[in-house]
Write a structure and sequence with these properties.
single chain, 417 residues, alpha/beta, Rossmann fold, four-stranded antiparallel β-sheet, binds S-adenosylmethionine, methyltransferase, SAM-dependent_MTases_sf
Length: 417
């Protein structure tokens, strides 16, 4: 991509702002674009790609250019990550930067420490090594440095996967069925989906295949009482509603009014009428009391570190600490405890996260089961097989980008005796 001196300067400005602020990178980048409305789509794409490359490869760049200014980090990134030659950048380099950039270009990158190759903070790298061993931890970490494909879920109420695939193909796009989810379509090209008729008519929703598989694990049946305890903007709720063929009652709880309000337009597109969004103050909200043991299925898609989604949100690895993880596990335990109260005898409770860390996953489930002999664990692979999904990761569902091509997800299925 050809870049002008003006675009280079704007990129440095955007990245400086990004580094100075706090909060999710995608929100801050959107705010920057809102404040710079004149930027065209080509320039926006370049700025976003550079910002994300820098977030993905920050350890390597810090090794190449320790304590560099945002301007120099961008230069190093363009040369060593994006593969531009220093000569291409010379027209807008300052005098002192010409030689410096040549040195950056020539600096060897062999035998880097494994945490640097993994592009993870040391504490996170050490945890992954303890869980998976060095070789697999590195494979996982490398897969998390890639960009994620655009996965869609076909809404069974409004369309069929074969027809959606055929339409995309006719439009010249590379659309393939996702390997595991029966409703998934993977698009190679990144398109402006919100302008596509299939999206506006509610035939497709954006949803990683991993999320689709979590809904398949809940496997609600027609006419059942189902709760999505941490529904957020309703990605999984909508998938559950479609599996239920718009029958029964589906509650979408969340503590965030903003997230639940983002569910509304998606709900309108989906054609579902069995879904009831309910704002709760916290997991001990009085509203939940009268619903005790009323549900056949309860999904807890718990607030988590999100470290399984680093392909999409590379900033998450720099924005969290071990202390945050410890706090999260307490919250996760409390939410699981409260959500379990809603489950009927014989009913199913699915605890899920998009984290890769045992503390947030197996650890939370083990602590819960130790306190609740009235629940027992079911085998996730068997439940998926009942939905004709051949995917065996053992008792737990454990999805990993290098193995399954999805974001990293974890789920445990628990049944009330
Ligand atoms: C991983 S996100 C859910 C994503 C959503 N299920 C989806 O598929 O799009 C976790 C959600 O938990 C919500 N949350 C946080 N604390 C909660 C609590 N105490 N009770 C219920 N929901 C909570 C957050 O607001 C957030 O929306």
């Amino acid at each position: 991509m050809a870049i002008s001196p003006a675009l280079f300067d704007t990129t440095v400005e955007a990245i400086t702002e990004l580094q100075e602020g706090s909060g999710p990178a995608d929100a801050r980048l959107s705010a920057y674009f809102r404040n710079h409305r004149k930027l065209g789509s080509h320039d926006r794409a370049f700025i976003a790609e550079t910002a994300y490359a820098l977030l993905r490869r920050r350890r390597f760049l810090d090794y190449l250019a320790p304590e560099a200014s945002p301007r120099r980090l961008v230069l190093a990134c363009l040369v060593r990550v994006n593969g531009l030659s220093p000569r291409e950048l010379e027209p807008f380099l300052r005098k002192t930067e010409v030689e410096w950039l040549r040195e950056i270009k020539a600096k060897p990158a062999d035998n880097l420490p494994l945490a640097v190759q993994a592009e993870l903070p040391d504490w996170l790298w050490e945890r992954l090594v303890a869980q998976y061993g060095e070789e697999e931890a590195l494979a996982i970490a490398r897969s998390l440095q890639q960009t994620a494909p655009l996965d869609l879920r076909v809404n069974r109420l409004k369309g069929q996967r074969e027809a959606v695939l055929a339409l995309f193909t006719k439009e010249g796009l590379t659309a393939t069925p996702t390997p595991y989810s029966p409703d998934g379509v993977r698009l190679k090209e990144k398109i402006a989906l919100n302008q596509h008729v299939l999206f506006n008519k509610g035939v497709v929703e954006v949803q990683d295949e991993g999320s689709q598989l979590l809904a398949a694990l809940v496997a609600p049946r027609r006419g059942e009482m189902v709760a999505d305890f941490c529904a957020g903007a309703g990605g999984k709720t909508l998938a559950l509603g479609a599996i239920m063929a718009n029958t029964g009652r589906l509650y979408a709880f969340d503590v965030s009014e903003r997230r639940l309000s983002n569910l509304r337009p998606r709900l309108a597109r989906s054609g579902l009428s069995n879904l009831h969004p309910q704002l709760i103050a916290n997991e001990r909200d009085q509203k939940l009391k009268r619903l005790a043991q009323k549900f056949d299925r309860v999904l807890v898609d718990a607030p988590c570190s999100g470290l399984g989604t680093l392909r999409r949100n590379p900033d998450l690895k720099w924005r969290q600490s071990e202390m945050d993880i410890a706090e999260l596990t307490v919250k996760q335990g409390n939410i699981l405890e409260a959500a379990a109260k809603l489950v009927k005898p014989g009913g199913r409770l699915v605890y899920a996260t998009c984290s890769l860390l045992e503390a947030e996953n197996e650890g939370v489930v083990a602590a819960f089961l130790a306190q609740h002999p009235e629940f027992e664990q079911a085998n996730a692979a068997e439940i998926l097989a009942q939905q004709k999904i051949e995917l065996d990761t053992g008792d737990f569902l454990k999805l990993l980008p290098h193995k399954h091509g999805t974001d990293g997800f974890f789920a445990a299925v628990l049944t009330r005796r």
